[in-house]
Amino acid sequence: MTKMKIATSNLKEEALLMKIPIITDEGLFFLIETIKKHQVKTILEIGSAIGYSAIMMAAHVEKIVTVEREEELANIARENIKEINLASKVTVINADALNLEITETFDLIFIDAAKAQYEKFFIKFKNNLTKDGIIICDNLNFHNLDYQKASKSTQNLLKKLANFKKILKANNEFETTYT
User: Fold this and answer.
1) Secondary structure class of 131 (helix, strand, coil)
2) pLDDT tens digits for 76-96?
3) What are 13-66's pLDDT values in tens digits?
């Protein structure tokens, strides 16, 4: 096993132990296949957590800028990225993405942060896409959670996600698909 495989395997275990949500294996497979299919070179990621998805995407692109609101998580992400020698490819910004001004454009924007803010993230960063760029929003179905069995706060989140999906479907600027 290569050093990167060992490190990322441990990173996934670390996230699970720390109860830090990271992208699912299925989501990661979809993301990497999309990167390869569309020859993505640059990525803006909203929601770094501990850097797992950025590290996994880095092997397939030239540059990733990843934004994490929580200072402790941003520091962990930086350390993990540095440990795997990816600091030249992956930049971690510790900031609330909704208060951040980014002027660069990216081939892909990956939104995997506060689900209740997905619509705001989408609106704020859609102009940071290159021509024919792609936006991927992770887990719009929120683990297929049953609305009736969810807590009141989770029901509110599910309503926001359902509304966001309606907005995406009605949006003529983008072609929207769900997987």
Assistant:
1) strand
2) 999 999 999 999 999 999 999
3) 888 888 998 998 999 999 999 999 999 999 999 999 999 999 999 999 999 999
- Longest CA–CA span in the chain (Å) reads 46
Q: In the chain, what is the straight-line distance between the N-terminal and C-terminal CA atoms, in Å?
A: 31
For 14-81, give the DSSP string: HHHHHT-----HHHHHHHHHHHHHTT--EEEEE--TTSHHHHHHHTT-SEEEEEESSHHHHHHHHHHH
Residue 22, φ and ψ in degrees, nearest 5 = -130, 165
CATH number of the domain residue 70 falls in: 3.40.50.150
Share of the chain above pLDDT 70, in %: 84
| Tokens 């760029």 found at | 133
Mean pLDDT (the chain, rounded):
86
What residues contact 27, with CB distance under 8 A and at least 6 apart? 138, 139
Tell whether 123 is covered by a domain: yes
Q: Give the structural domain span for 79.
A: 3-170
Q: For tokens 């929207």, what's the residue?
A: 176
Please state, in angstroms and rounded to a whole number, the distance separating the CA atoms of residues 50 and 179.
Answer: 25
